Predict the 3D structure of the following.
Amino acid sequence: MDAKLKETILNPIFKGNPITVLVLGICSSLAVTVTLKGALVMALSVIVVTGISSLILSLLRNTIPGRVRIIVQLVVVAMMVILVDQILKSFEATYAIDKQLSVYIGLIITNCIVMGRIEAFALGNKPWPSFLDGVANGAGYGMILLIVAFFRELLGSGTLFGLDILNRFGYVPNNLVILPPFALILLGCIVWVQRSIQKDLQEK
Amino acid sequence: MNTNNNVYTVVYTTVIVVVVAALLAFVSQSLKAKQDANEKADTISQMLTAAGYATKADLEKLGNTAVLAKYDEEIEKAFVIDLEGNELRALEGNNVYSPKQLKRQNYNLKGGPNKTGEPELPVFIFRNGRTVVPIYGAGLWGPIWGYISFNTDLETIGGAYFDHESETAGLGAKIKDDPSFQAEFVGEKANFADVNVLEIVKGGAPKDAEGNSVIDNKIDAITGATMTSNGLDAAIDTWLAAYAKYFLANKPACDKPCCQADVISSEVEKSNSEEE
């Protein structure tokens, strides 16, 4: 794999992470991180949506009329989001989780990462790198989601993926952790950690 | 090719919208049967939860087939009644009212331009003696609905389960997610003679000296979710008042031994659920 492609994949995971560096997609990362299961389904849904809509729009990039390109992007992204929602609703295993995520699956369409990457990358690059860029950005988003959800479920419910971890030792679940503001606090800590490792992100 | 001329732009957007619409319509049609089956199993598990058979989480683990089998096994009688409390017809072939059907009946109950006919209200009687009835109404952001079960005295609540479409997570969503809120209903007595059959009150339901909830028709509202609590209160009152004639007509005389036994068992359950 050539270096540029590798960069396309690795950059969004850490150095150019959509949540902690580009500060996109904060809203849903506060809302769906109460449980790891919810965060995982959300992360996978976003990966599918960003990956495939980037691929489709990159294939269409030379035919899209410039004046209506945002509308065309929206149509494709909305289609992908509805497809994901419909498919999640049809399986027994994911029905309950789809109900729990409810509006947030539909709101993937407004997730800035999706439109941001299409506008910034997919419309100017070949399909394969665009697909990888979409997937990698979705994965970078998903990774932060899972980190936040790990702490929130562990401290807020005493469980991980619904399995009892801390409660058996007499841990009292902390309600503050369940509330959305705590996700913001955690997110701040993640940004802090990343900026102390990656010095070039610090403003002079 | 000039992709910026008007004809091209119009034709292009038309084609893409038609293609996407056709694809989505196809997918939606082909997945509908599966989605309906999931929704039905979900509805049934909500009723079984309200009737006190298991917790919602345990029923979800069982899977759709087992939930349907459990319902077939445990349902004694399911039928629809009119506002006068008369039985209209039996509900055949484990037809349970989906939230969509409840919505239609809610319009019929409230009247107005969406009314399509006289209300037909479902009643589900389970083998453990509990009678389950649905409620439906408006929360803060979208519809809320749920099921309340009554013991054989048709007055004491045996259990409740509520669901919602899009209430705020951590606040209004607690009507579904917080088992302690649902447990508050257990053991309380509905007052079918009044328009306020059950009251969800702000600032705490009356408590006795030991801090236990007094047995009345008052339930503690959810802190930070006044609008959802008010919506739930209105939904419960609208629906239970519609059932009032049925419940009052079928209420057993309260000196029956079964009646006493129920009160005791519901109190035991209440203390159990509080321990959880």
